[in-house]
Amino acid sequence: MTKLLTADEMLDVLLHIKHPKFNLLKAKMEQLASEMGELIAESLDVNCGPASFEGSAFAGTCVPFLAKRVGQPCPEPLLQFDQTEWCTQEHDLNPATGAIIQ
């Protein structure tokens, strides 16, 4: 049987073994995820923040998506994921952290 690891799990291993390239590869993963997030957000007319690596036991490498307009429903392609996380209020995102600015 082969051991299969996701990209986030491999980052976890690199972090665990204190590999010197962990930070470089984490940054590359976050950059790629941010680029995908921006494409998705533009295509679905929603907002998104930058990607962040949270470890595979949590969210892995994730991008926050949220409504661009007050009351905007969650777009169908995102409905298959946790619907309780969709924010229907209009918010600005801190460009450095991706956190919602109230």
What is the 3D form? elongated
Helix tally equals 2
Give the helices and strands as they follow along the chain.
HHEEEEEE
Radius of gyration: 15 Å
Low-pLDDT residue intervals, each spanning 5 or more residues: none
Instruction: Determine the strand fraction and express it as a percent band.
Output: 5-15%
In spatial order, strands of the major sheet run 1-4
- Helix/strand-derived category reads alpha+beta
Helical fraction equals: 25-40%
What is the terminal separation in angstroms? 49 Å
Mean pLDDT: 88
List keywords for this structure.
102 residues, alpha+beta, two-stranded antiparallel ribbon, two-stranded antiparallel sheet, 2 helices, 6 strands, 32% helix
Could you characterize the architecture of this molecule?
The N and C termini lie far apart (49 Å). It is elongated and about 45 Å long. The protein has helices spanning 7-16, 22-44, and strands spanning 47-48, 52-53, 61-62, 65-66, 92-93, 100-101. It has one domain (7-101). The model has no long low-confidence stretch (mean pLDDT 88). The protein is of the alpha+beta class. A two-stranded antiparallel ribbon has the order 1-4. It has a two-stranded antiparallel sheet with strand order 2-3. A hairpin with a 7-residue loop joins strand 2 (52-53) and strand 3 (61-62). It contains two helices and six strands, in the order H-H-E-E-E-E-E-E.
Summarize it:
By secondary structure, the protein is α+β, with helices and mostly antiparallel strands. 32% of the residues lie in helices and 12% in strands.
